[in-house]
Amino acid sequence: EYVHRGAYPLVVTALLAGAFMLIARPHVATSSLLKISLLVWVAQNILLLCFAAYRLSIYIDAFGLTYLRFHAGLWMGLVVVGLGLVAWDLVRPQSQSWVMRWSFRSAATLLYLACFVNFGAIITHSNVARAEQDKSVDWFYLCGIGVSNHAVIYQIWDRYDVPFSKSALRYRPITSWRDWDFRRAQIDRSIAQIEQSLPGAPS
Questions:
Q1: pLDDT band at residue 202, thresholds of 50, 70 and 90?
Q2: Are the C-beta atoms of residues 3 and 55 closer than 8 Å to each other?
Q3: How many whole angstroms separate alpha carbon 114 and alpha carbon 105?
């Protein structure tokens, strides 16, 4: 709550600043002072977002990574890209829709690439690394993420004092074509490889 209370209002402020700069853009050509002022304002908003991201990283280091914290960091990065596009448009004026077009492309590219990223596994790896540094780990949260991190959980189960049995994961392998999807197939393959490598597994 502490992180999100500071992060999201700042992102909204940066978006409003970007919208105002797009509105003021037609007047930039007639006033060099306005252009410089807008560039300073963009730089200030980018700097504020960078500090917010640094604050988020400190919080993650202290309390661990979660989906919401991961998404907040990605959202901040996307807004910084948008503000950078606005700044570029101020320095080298493009067409009226250039900033909107490239902002949309950036967001679409991020969403598309996110389809191939197993965020649950990344979050679990990050939090397990905390256990290796003798920091607190919220095992209840990790075990409740869902099937996306089951392969990682299976891998580290015997190395750490996880306060749950494996049955708590409620893992259900793919049994028919209706259950199949790209992520589940990857997880099934990883778990099968892990179980094969365990002592006593059939060769």
A1: very low
A2: yes
A3: 14
| Residues contacting 115, CB < 8 A, separation 6+ | none
* Three-state secondary structure of the chain: CHHHHHHHHHHHHHHHHHHHHHHHHHHHHHCHHHHHHHHHHHHHHHHHHHHHHHHHHHHHHHHCCCHHHHHHHHHHHHHHHHHHHHHHHHHCCCCCCHHHHHHHHHHHHHHHHHCCCCHHHHHHHHHHHHHHCCCCCCHHHHHCCCHHHHHHHHHHHHHCCCCCCHHHHCCCCCCCHHHCCHHHHHHHHHHHHHHHHCCCCCC
DSSP 160: T
Strand ranges in 64-189 using DSSP code E only, listed in sequence order: none
Q: How far is CA 45 from the centre of its chain?
A: 20
pLDDT category of residue 188 using cuts at 50, 70 and 90: confident
* Distance set, CA 109 to CA 12, 16, 105, 118, 152 (Å): 21, 23, 6, 16, 27
Closest CA to 42 of 12, 3, 5, 80: 80
**Tokens representing 143?**
């075990």
pLDDT in tens, 104-143: 899 899 989 988 888 888 888 888 888 777 777 777 787 7
Q: pLDDT tens digits for 12-55?
A: 776 777 677 777 777 777 777 877 888 888 888 888 888 888 88
